[in-house]
Structures are given as structure tokens and as C-alpha cells.
Amino acid sequence: MDIPEVTVIMPAYNTEAYISQAIESVLGQTLKNLELIVVDDASTDKTLAIAQNFTDDRLKIIASPKNLGPSGARNLAIKEAKGKWIAILDSDDWYLPERLEKLLQVADAENADMVADDLYYIKDGDKTPWNTLIAQSGEQIDTIKEIDSVYYVETDLPGRGGLTVGLTKPVIKREFLVKNNIEYDESIRLSEDFWFYLKCLAYKARFIFVPTPYYFYRSRLGSLVASTNKVKRLEETCNISKHFLEQDFIKTNPQLFKALSRRLALLEKTRPYFRVLDAIKSKSFSRTLVEMANNPYFFVHLAKQSPQIISRRINYFSSKYFSKYSSVDKHLSKD
After folding, report:
1. E strand intervals along the chain
2. What angle do CA 69, 168, 133 make, to 5 degrees?
3. DSSP string covering 279-306, please?
4. How far apart are CA 215 and CA 122, in angstroms?
């Protein structure tokens, strides 16, 4: 087999209901010269067995005897990769057939180290996306855009809108990763992509964003993000931010250091909001009152967030109502 143009890495943990669609979307790409590495991260369901049912010789399966977490599983796949480019796909998401071909065309034309696309947001069980990354962000992006490290940090603020590029799944030049010894931090189990891409940008990766969605991002109950307490997620993100601010590749870039410091300050200000929200979800009236009294900034943050919350709800329910008129239905079949 020739050297693959791209290696798609897919960590998988207990996604038996979704992994077939994810694998099929890779093997069905218009770009044929590829390899797919699936790392089963010690699943306890039929995920591994389903992946092993595929017979395509471009597919390689690694069964980890212990759970490595998403960062560890990705690192394992990257070490085994032979492709010129590394592409990332979560095992509960999927690609449109032309995705890799289109992104590599842009990569060659722009001499890029990383290329990401817009993505469709789709809820588990729905047949039509309810929004896209760009539309959700409120940004106006009509042509390809270069993403620098400061823009990347300043427009990816949890709960405050902006173009959350950290959610995308770019193709990345493997030679760039090897040259700069860049890998996932295996202590990070949430938002690991955000920090991985940030490190690439800190090492001067040329990152191009394409305003066309070729990636379907599925939100579902049971995913690692959905099942993790938001207060815990926020605290972990703050701790990781402090760790990154101590690293030389951040400290030697004053503008990036300042942007990441501002992001950390904003994240810490949102802690009261999520503490009260967590109390409300617990359905404990007394706990909620205590948290509201201890965290009065909750009301300020809620007032700021209300327009975005309402907008997201309108977008979601509008998409469901008009789903039968969608032009992307032909891409969504699981058969």
C-alpha cells in the first residue's frame, strides 16, 4: 500500500450505537488513499466487536487493555499513523463523503499545517442539524480564514459565544507534529482538542478555517462532556489554563499569554453561575438559596446569557419544524 495521504484517528469508548456510521463515513470518502485507526479504549459494550466486523484493509484496530482516556487513545493512534496528514473523528460523529478531499485541497493551496471546516450540530435521534458552528457563533465568515493563536483563544469563551474553533476536527500535517514533538496531554480528559490545537498554534502552525461544514457533531446523553458536572468541568478548565500559562511556549508569546489570562479571568467569573445552576438542577430549594446568596454574580451572568439561550432554543426548534425541507437529508442516512 502507498503511503496514505491521511490517517484518520478514532478513539472509541462504548459507542456501539454509533461507531458503524463513523467508520463507514471514513471508508466511503472520495479520497481513497487513507488509513483509519480505531482505538477501542477498553469498551464494555460491543464497540470493539462491531469495529472488527469491517474487512477493509485500510482499517486498523487497536484494542487497549485499559482505559486511556481520549487524549491517551489519540496519542496511541498518532504514534501508529503512517499518513502525511492526521484527521480526527469522534466515534459518535461522522463525515460527509467529500470532506477529506476538500480539506486537503485547501491545505495544499494555502500551504497550511492545519485545516478545519465548519460543522453541523445535530442532536442524537434527529434527522436534521439544528445549527452550524458559524451560525451559532454569530460570526460572519464567508471565505477561508486564517486562525491565529490570539483569535483562537479570544473567540472560544465557554458560555459567551464566539467561534469555538476548539470544537472542530482539523486535518493536521503529521510532519509538523513530529518536528515540534506535539502530542495530547494525557492528564486532560475534557476539551483536550482545544489545548492540543492551542499548542500547535503556539508553535506557529498555519491554521486555515473553511466556512463549509463537512463534519457532523452529535450531542448525546452519555457522552463524556454531557455526563460531566459543569462546575467540575469549569474548575478543571481553570486549572489547565493556569498550567498552560506557566509553559514557556505560552510565556514567550506576550499577546497569547495576555489572551489566555483574560480567558481564565472570565472563566473564573462564571463559576458562581454554574454553582447556582448545579444547585437548581439538584432540586434542592435550600441549597439553591444558599448558592444564590453566596454567588450574587449568578444574576448578572444569567442576564447576559439570556439572549443566547433564547436564540439557541429558537434555532433548535425551528430546525426540527422545517427538517423535512432540509437539503442535507441525503447525507444523513445511517443505512
Report:
1. 6-12, 34-40, 59-63, 85-88, 94-95, 114-123, 131-132, 145-147, 171-173, 207-219
2. 130
3. HHHTT-HHHHHHHHHH-THHHHHHHHHH
4. 10
Closest to 92 in 3D by CA, of 182, 2, 226: 226
Each residue's pLDDT tens digit, 195-204: 999 999 999 9
Query: What is the chain's alpha carbon radius of gyration, rounded to the nearest angstrom?
Result: 20
Rounded distance between C-alpha atoms, residue 114 and residue 200, angstroms: 9
Global pTM reads 0.82
Buried b (16+ CB within 10 A) or exposed e, 114-140: bbbbbbbbbeeebebbbbbbbebbeee
pLDDT in tens, 195-247: 999 999 999 999 999 999 999 999 977 555 544 567 787 888 899 999 999 99
Distance CA 281, CA 291 (A): 12
DSSP state of 2: P
248 contact partners, CB below 8 Å, separation of at least 6 = none
Contacting residues for 326 by C-beta, under 8 A, at least 6 apart: 127, 128, 129, 319
> Residue 198: which residues within 8 A CB-CB, separation 6 or more?
149, 152, 153, 166, 244
Q: 24 is written with which cell numbers?
A: 463507514
Residues, the chain, total? 335
